[in-house]
């Protein structure tokens, strides 16, 4: 079984099995966004310089953050276990036309350790505090990858006036975690791939072994969000994940597609887009699509 391909070994690679079953990439058939004048500018402007890492104190905790460029505010929220370095050239390329910032959440990189248990709402409150500490002008475009999707949606639900738009990159959709028990077959000691998948999911669902101490009850609260009055872009990986043979890939894919449609339906102004040729780390294969989607989200 192949793991979700990452650019280098790191925390997200170590958690690849959890990412696979919780945040796997499936296909859609929705339209691709048409280029806009700002999208063209974002592709052709010279990248900005990444500024030195800075320390922030938010809600009594220390966070590390970095920014680049000047202009309208864009905030990057990485997936589970990811660090600022995992964004690659995205911050500096977006920084050509925007003020783009990113940060390490509690339990990740050089930020403080997380509390014993935290929810998506807790993490969203930290995100809001980081935006304020960085003095980013509101409203902000929040780009959320993978587990960053539920965090971004939770933040936008609580701060709709501060959210200019959400651009979600292969986000974990609502309802998918609840559907997992029906998608994964019973344990089989003779199937090592399936055993590792189930064990990784168990570790992810336990706040004591989850890198960010995520309370599994957080998924229920996320699933209950039924509306966000915010423009929404949902970019879904075009490449399906490799799964253990015991898992019904078609059923898994269908559940993921249903979740992404449900996620896009949270906003009356939404765009569900296939990132053809890209896996879970969409910006590695389709950087221009990410840049143009953010540029479109910034266009009045």
Quote the distance from N terminus to C terminus.
45 Å
What Rg is obtained from the alpha carbons, in whole angstroms?
A: 18 Å
Please trace the helix and strand order, writing H or E for each element.
HHHEEEHEHEHEHHHEHEHH
Q: How many H/I helices? A: 12
Helix content, binned percent: 25-40%
Q: In CATH's first tier, which class applies?
A: Alpha Beta
- Taken as a percent bin, the fraction of beta residues is 15-25%
Structure write-up:
This protein is of the alpha/beta class and 300 residues long. The protein has one domain: Alpha/Beta hydrolase fold, catalytic domain (Rossmann fold, 3-Layer(aba) Sandwich). It has 12 helices and 8 strands. Strands 1-2-4-3-5-6-7-8 form an 8-stranded mixed β-sheet, sandwiched between helices. Strand 7 (232-237), helix 10 and strand 8 form a beta-alpha-beta unit. It is globular. The N and C termini lie far apart (45 Å).
């Amino acid at each position: 079984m192949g793991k979700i391909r990452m650019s280098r070994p790191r925390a997200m690679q170590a958690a690849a099995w959890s990412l696979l079953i919780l945040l796997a990439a499936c296909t859609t058939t929705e339209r691709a966004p048409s280029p806009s004048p700002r999208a063209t500018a974002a592709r052709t402007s010279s990248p900005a310089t990444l500024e030195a890492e800075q320390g922030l104190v938010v809600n009594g905790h220390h966070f590390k953050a970095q920014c680049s460029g000047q202009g309208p505010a864009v905030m990057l929220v990485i997936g589970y276990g990811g660090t600022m370095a995992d964004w690659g050239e995205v911050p500096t390329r977006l920084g050509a036309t925007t003020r783009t910032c990113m940060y390490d959440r509690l339990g990740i990189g050089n930020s403080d350790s997380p509390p014993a248990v935290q929810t998506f709402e807790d993490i969203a409150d930290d995100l809001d505090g980081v935006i304020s500490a960085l003095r980013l002008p509101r409203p902000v475009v929040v780009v959320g990858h993978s587990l960053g999707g539920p965090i971004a949606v939770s933040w936008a639900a609580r701060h709709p006036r501060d959210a200019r738009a959400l651009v979600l990159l292969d986000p974990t959709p609502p309802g998918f975690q609840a559907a997992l028990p029906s998608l994964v077959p019973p344990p089989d000691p003779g199937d090592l791939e399936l055993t590792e998948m189930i064990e990784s999911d168990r570790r992810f669902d336990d706040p004591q072994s989850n890198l960010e101490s995520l309370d599994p009850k957080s998924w229920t609260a996320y699933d209950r969000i039924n509306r966000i009055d915010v423009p929404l872009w949902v970019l879904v990986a075009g490449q399906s994940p490799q799964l253990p043979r015991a898992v019904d890939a078609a059923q898994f894919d269908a559940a993921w597609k249903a979740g992404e449609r449900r996620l896009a339906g949270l906003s009356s102004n939404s765009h569900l887009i296939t990132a053809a040729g890209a896996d879970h780390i969409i910006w590695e294969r389709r950087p221009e699509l990410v840049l143009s989607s953010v540029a479109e989200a910034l266009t009045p």
